[in-house]
What does this fold into?
Amino acid sequence: MAISHRAAPAPRLVRGAVPHARDAGDAVRFRILAQVRHFGGLRRLLGPQQAAALMAIVVERISAQLPLARVEMVARDIVEIDFESVRDDALSDALGRVRGCCIDAVELDGGPQRFDLLIGAATGTRGGDEVVLVEEAEAALVEARSRRPFAIQPFESGFPHVDSLAAEIDRALDRNEMVLHYQPKVHVRREEITSAEALIRWRHPEHGMVLPGDFIPATEQAQRIDRLTLWALRQAIEDQRRLRAHGHDLRIFINITGQLLADTAFAEAACACIKEAPDAQIGFEVTETSVIRDPEAAIANLQRFDRSGVRVSIDDYGAGLSSLAYLKQLPARELKIDKLFITQLTSSNRDPLIVRSTIDLAHALDLEVVAEGVETHAALALLTVMGCDMVQGYLISRPIPIVELISFLAEERSHRAVEQTRASFTRLAATWKRA
Ligand code: C2E
Ligand code: CA
Ligand code: CA
It folds into this structure.
């Protein structure tokens, strides 16, 4: 198995000295924290109910392995395990058992799903300071968390070398393991879905559904991001035809990573691909930070895209270095405010001010504004008042496969038809009353 970050030993860290020479009966306290890796992504993929079901199974498995321990959830993705033992090998035994809990996939409604655990542990003495024990275990977990998946440490033992990763990506593309999910963008004033963002997923034969955060950086390192992005572009064009056959006319946006923006060979290949499909309506989401890397080449490519009819959207605005100077020079039509500012829009004092001024600034530069990460009605209401043009987020839909998008759009359409009929009945009734 080449790519094995999930199957590779999970980083596990232990804090606190384990007293070796002990008298019998001199028990040691153990506190283990096990966190499901990338739970946010899994929750996005599976939905909150199935993600909660996964956590319940994790707790069940750990409890079965460590029947004498107290096992409970302390956060929506973290399980705390607390026990005492006099055995020297108690901790390594417990860590092995916890680790073993993620060997088999869990059976959920949508089929088997794999998961990985990040583990942090601390040891203390019986009657010792509880707060210190908790803090040490948390610190160990933070350290485990900071050891990123293979994307960042491709040379660590158990992780594939970039060369084998490149081969793995090639194989995945050849075997149709990559898939695009779509998340609709709604035009606020028109109350209409006008476009969708394509988000890539890897249906890995061993690891289940892998989210892009886990393999895009590695794909960049392995010099395969051009191939992957061109695949995504072709797939988006094909899916767009399917949508059109069902009567849905949507522009589809794909994500272009920083590395590719200044790459002229990629830009040429992408434009050629679009030229071959004159009916395609494509958008590219690019970040400002990627323009700043090599502005001259990036701007030239963006102009090339614009001339080919590609709508350029500035992604993750506000998350990185934002420079007005660049923004003015870019042939962009759309600005996406990073979800960082949107998910806390109604609970923060600062974020509404930032969002409001960003919308005004974008409008002054003739850009349409998209808010991503819209999760609540309250956020949608506030964004509408602020004059935001488009919204995208879980409130409307999670990213979904193309077949689901087709039924979602059909339902949307019939819903709108009912609303319109209702509105015209109301108007009609008002006319009758007046007559
Ligand atoms: P992004 O472009 O910022 O994509 C939006 C991410 O936010 C997606 O995560 C999406 O599932 C998530 N999201 C959508 N609505 C909400 C919401 O209401 N609340 C919250 N909290 N999150 C929401 P995903 O699919 O895991 O994608 C992560 C990143 O991977 C993307 O960030 C994008 O930069 C990259 N990516 C995805 N597909 C591709 C691709 O085909 N090519 C390249 N180069 N990068 C891609
Ligand atoms: Ca994006
Ligand atoms: Ca984004």
The longest strand covers residues 192-204. The pocket of C2E (ligand 1) is lined by residues 41, 44, 183, 199-200, 211-213, 216, 229, 232, 254-255, 257, 285, 315-316, 339, 343, 372-375, 393-394, 399 (CB under 6 Å).
